[in-house]
Amino acid sequence: MWHIYFILWVAGSGKSTLISNLQKLDLPNYYHPISYKTRPMREYEKNWVDAWFLSKEDFFAQVQAWEFLEYAIVHETDYYGTKFVDVLDNGIHMWKTVVKELDINGLEELKRNRPEMDELYSTIFLNIPENILRERIEKRGAFMSDEELKRRLSSAVVEEQKAEHLCDYIIDATLSPEEVLKAFLNILDK
């Protein structure tokens, strides 16, 4: 049966690993739409594969055309969004199980602006303590100013507090990638 599973996370919690491991399983009727983002594309990313990278002008033109199911500002700098066509037309209307990453701000917007959709989706938060989050971000080797790191860590604390009230499930993201995948699949089976 079709349903939408939104995965919420903080940077470094293993969201990309979970999505990658899900895709390797090649589950029947599984669909993972990609996000639309205004942030610069990273050197290892590919446009239209990892995300749709848009200018802020193009993004807001599509917002004005009511193309987005939800969108939100992330890390106080860039916009991320999910289009109706990707989730509804290409997903649930095709009787597929949709698994889509979603920022906590996007979830708040979705709940506020689309309450009629509440029964169509479940939300799963990948939770990770701040000290492990800091380690993972630093281990990635991505350059990040002290200010950016501090902003992401304080954002993670706020997101965790919100997730406790907004999310249907919380997965301990300190588990191994295999255990996180198993916990996620157990939720799909419910």
Walk me through the structure.
The protein is α/β, with parallel strands linked by helices and 190 residues long. The chain has one domain: 3-Layer(aba) Sandwich (Rossmann fold), CATH 3.40.50.300. The protein contains 7 helices and 9 strands, in the order βαβββαββαβαβααβα. The chain has helices at 15-25, 56-64, 84-89, 104-113, 130-140, 146-166, 177-188, and strands at residues 3-8, 30-31, 36-37, 52-53, 68-74, 78-83, 97-101, 121-127, 169-172. The strands form 2 sheets. The protein has a 5-stranded parallel β-sheet with strand order 2-7-1-8-9, with helices on both faces. Strands 4-3-6-5 form a 4-stranded mixed β-sheet. Helix 1 (15-25) crosses helix 7 (177-188). The termini are close together. The mean pLDDT is 88.
Overall 3D shape = globular
Which value, in Å, is the CA radius of gyration?
16 Å
Number of DSSP helices?
7
What is the CATH architecture assignment? 3-Layer(aba) Sandwich
Strand order of the largest sheet: 2-7-1-8-9
How many individual domains?
1
- Determine the strand fraction and express it as a percent band: 15-25%
How helix-rich are the residues, as a percent range? 40-55%
How far the N terminus sits from the C terminus, by CA atoms, comes to: 11 Å
CATH topology: Rossmann fold
Mean pLDDT, all residues? 88
Q: How would you classify the helix and strand content by structural class?
A: alpha/beta
H/E series: EHEEEHEEHEHEHHEH
Low-confidence stretches: none
Q: What CATH first level would be assigned?
A: Alpha Beta
Largest sheet, described in full? Answer: 5 strands, parallel
Would you report the number of β strands?
9
CATH level-4 homologous superfamily: P-loop containing nucleotide triphosphate hydrolases
